Amino acid sequence: MSRNILIVESENDQYFIESLKDYLNIYDVNIDTPICTIDDYECLSGLSKVKLEAKLQELKIEIEKRGIEKIGILLDADNEGIAKRIELINEALKVIDKDLNLTRCNHFIKSESLEIEIACYITNVEGYGELETVLKTIKSKDSPFADCLYEWKKCLEERSQTIKDKDFDKFWVNTYQRFDCCTKKEQKQAGRKCNPEASMKKDIWNFEHSVLDGLKEFLKLF
Predict the structure, then answer these.
(1) 173-203: per-residue pLDDT in tens?
(2) Are 79 and 36 in contact, with CB atoms under 8 Å apart?
(3) Which among 168, 165, 192, 219 has a CA at the least distance from the CA of 8?
(4) Are residues 23 and 79 in the same domain?
(5) Is residue 54 located within the same domain as residue 161?
(6) Are residues 50 and 87 in the same domain?
(7) Beta bridge partners of 31
(8) DSSP for 101-153?
């Protein structure tokens, strides 16, 4: 069992990172149970510090038992941006070691008291966004169904209605996965064959895209 643990926000993050790890042939880090579940009300508007603190405290108890040597934290930038997310991580880290302070992504710092190393990466496109923002950027197949959602979004705006970028990106990715990248036969079992887990195993993403360079660097640190 790997002595390196990666904390992620959601199951979708987990599916994506597992696929990227396989692509990069990286097997030295295990992804821990995601912080948020799909029906977790506290996570609907973004990750809370309380959730991250709870996960860190949970791992602190397991450090010696599991022989954990390195912990990576992977969060979305959302609308907060990278600096604000690192700030949130530092606040949460105080619950396990008051002396820990991350200053940048992709750089391990040592907890002398816990005898572990900790680093973080903030998922982003040009400093903001989340996993779905990245997935939109690295899609590798034609996306007529998903792209037509831009006209739908424009129609909403003309009627003084709005949809948050975060929600739009999720809708776009779901549409791309289900209607642009699933066969008619697969769509009959869409819940199983067109869901995020199944879609991450398909050749519909460009893992060579430059937007993934920082994340790849992070995973290769372990």
Answers:
(1) 999 999 999 999 999 999 999 999 999 999 9
(2) no
(3) 219
(4) yes
(5) no
(6) yes
(7) 6
(8) ---SSS--EEETTTTEEEEEEEE-BTTBB-HHHHHHHHB-S--HHHHTHHHHH
Residue 18's Cβ-count burial label (10 Å; 0-12, 13-18, 19+) is middle
What is the pTM (predicted TM-score) of this model? 0.92
- What number of helices (H) and strands (E) belong to the chain? 11, 5
Number of domains in the chain: 2
In contact, 82 and 127? CB cutoff 8 Å: yes
DSSP state of 20: H
Same structural domain, 51 and 92: yes
- Please report, for the domain that includes residue 59, its CATH number: 3.40.470
Provide the domain limits for residue 187. 141-199
| Distance between CA atoms of residues 112 and 107, nearest Å | 16
